[in-house]
Amino acid sequence: MPSSSCHTVLAESFFHRNAELFRPHLAAVGLSERILSAPESEIPVTQYVALWEVLGREVSPSIGLEVAMRTESGELGAYGHAIRCAPTMELVLRSLTRFMVVLTQATQLSVEDDGKWITLAYRVTDASIVQRRQDAELTICVVLNLLREVTRNPQLAPMRVDFEHRAPRDLTCHREVFACPIRFEQPDNRLYFARELLDMPIRTADPRLFQALELFLEQQRQSRAASTDVLSQVAHQIASSLSSGCASLEQVASDLKIGVRTLQRRLAEHNVEFSQLVEEVRRSLAENYVMQSDYSLTEIALLLGYSEASSFCRAFRRWTQLTPQQFRQRSRS
């Protein structure tokens, strides 16, 4: 895992296929062009989600849905291949949810069956990632597209879709993609299907290949899930401690009820330094405060643990290549 990140997304061939879309905007979120041709790259989740928000502002407000509709299982590495090869819908849903962490950490995809509906719920679990509309729309639409792919039914539609963010001004693309009622400002992002979904035949099944992929993915899941658990706890504690000025290694270790050396050892196991986690959490929260609030720069600086607004402004410009004022104006325009 890269030392610059707490959680990561695997590039797979997804970034290569969308290289021309991503390339002009990588520098804005601190990513290298190397990821466009290196499927083994692990991309920090904070920067990955931030990239989608940049694309939403600079390219199209519905970019997540637009890219998702042309995304196929083969672009998602072993995770996508396992979903495609699963012999039953039950195993398709199990693979979608159980192995999500192999592809992307700090996220959760779950399936629920209440006897009437089959629902798939998605959320980002990293407390420092607040702006995430494009990631939510991309992921929910990719899940739907994968279900359409394995059933070879391009008309498959949910009964309802929920999103946690506010309703966009233009819902034309949403209505075309989902063809069902859509609700916003909900507790999470969710697809609702009738239980008949479980009876749909899988047209792409390959049971022998699925068996091999499932074993491999389970090994990967255990490794990446363990990393996610530890780093999510630390990132959440940092976010909670910044405004009080107590986001120190010693204080976070105390809050987590572990020793300082134990915390350092756990972070080292994932090639992560505590100071880098603080920096990432600060950046994510800073972008959210600047975009979504009317706080003054002094107030934001204090919320993030800076003693002066000037120190915050220098850090913000280093992160985004923009002043906070420029960033706020651009996001609101």
Counting DSSP E segments of at least 2 residues, the number of strands comes to: 7
Distance between the termini: 36 Å
> Approximately how much beta-strand content do the residues carry?
5-15%
Mean pLDDT: 90
**Low-confidence residue ranges:** 1-5
Question: Compute the gyration radius: what is it?
Answer: 20 Å
Tell me, briefly, the overall form. Answer: globular
The count of helical stretches stands at: 16
Largest sheet, strands/sense/barrel: 5 strands, mixed
Helical content (DSSP H or I, runs of 4+): 40-55%
Describe this structure in words.
The chain has 333 residues and is α+β, with helices and mostly antiparallel strands. The protein has two domains: 63-216, no CATH class; 222-332, Arc Repressor Mutant, subunit A. 53% of the residues lie in helices and 10% in strands. The protein is built from 16 helices and seven strands. It has helices at 14-17, 19-22, 45-58, 63-68, 77-85, 89-98, 100-103, 133-151, 172-178, 207-241, 249-255, 260-269, 274-292, 297-303, 309-320, 324-332, and strands spanning 8-10, 42-44, 107-113, 117-124, 160-162, 182-183, 189-194. The strands form two sheets. It has a five-stranded mixed β-sheet. Helix 5 (77-85) packs across helix 10 (207-241), helix 11 packs across helix 12 (260-269) and helix 13 (274-292) crosses helix 16. The model is unreliable at 1-5 (pLDDT under 50). Residues 232-330 form the HTH araC/xylS-type domain.
What are the defining features of this structure?
333 residues; alpha+beta; Arc Repressor Mutant, subunit A; 2 domains; two-stranded antiparallel ribbon; 16 helices; 7 strands; 53% helix; 10% strand; disordered N terminus
